[in-house]
Design goal:
Elements: H1 2-19, E1 25-26, E2 46-50, E3 61-65, H2 79-87, E4 91-96, H3 108-122, E5 134-139, H4 141-149, E6 174-177, H5 189-196, H6 202-207, E7 221-226, H7 235-246, E8 251-256, H8 280-291
Parallel strand pairs: 3-4, 3-5, 5-6, 6-7, 7-8
Antiparallel strand pairs: 1-2, 2-4
Amino acid sequence: MILRTATAVLFAFVSIALAQPKESFPLWPKGTPGALGADPVKDIPTLTPFWPDPTKATGAAVVICPGGGYGGLAQHEGKDYALFLNHHGIAAFVLKYRLGSAGYRHPAMLNDVNRAIRTVRANSTDWKLDPKRIGVMGSSAGGHLASTAVTHFDAGKPDAADPIERAGSRPDLGILCYPVISMGAVTHQGSKNNLLGKEPSAELVKLLSSELQVTKETPPCFVWHTWEDKGVKIENALGFVSALQANNVRFDFHVYEKGGHGLGLGLRDFTPEKTAQLHPWTSALAGWLKVQGFAK
């Protein structure tokens, strides 16, 4: 009887652990397609989950793409964002995607973010999430990756052997923070070089210029930038919201005068006690997420 009880407790513990992973995990447990090696840092894309207080959880989730020019990953645009979303009852998953500095080029990065969205959606029942409330968020080059996620997606493959690949990759909303959008004249050259190489074809430049890829199927987006940003030209955001408007896609757009590139939340090491110190865009986002049904 004692053995059966212990076994039941162990089974329950394992089930809970599988239901809501607490640690980083690879997007492709059986091997990453197109990997150049097996280095855990460079070659294996992962998701790191952050869960809200269960009493505040809304069932919504957001995949977060940190910035870094497709050459690195800015930690303050990952974990801090995740904790901010948790504060509003939203589960968050920080994506470690493959980078140009490790020898990768498109479509590796897009494959990673699409796989991340599929992973969250495919596991939504076990993780107590709503498969119709899964968003994507990114800053700077991570904002470009998020913008490709909202413009390059599919409904999944119903007959795929891998159950994750059966899930669709379309996000239900996008959050773009001082994003790189275009690969054209107003691009951030370092991000472009890392993503596409130094001599990409005109077709590839067009394909990865997100302002040219918006359709009526693009999900609603929250976009913000600052006038003072010298790292990424504000014309990127302006071009994207113009394309959203032209395609009758709902959006919330904010331009702030103050703030340099890489601003993030406006402070580092977020805790709920610091909410009043955050940059105003965070309050605007919180309100918009309520309108979208992601936050209460």
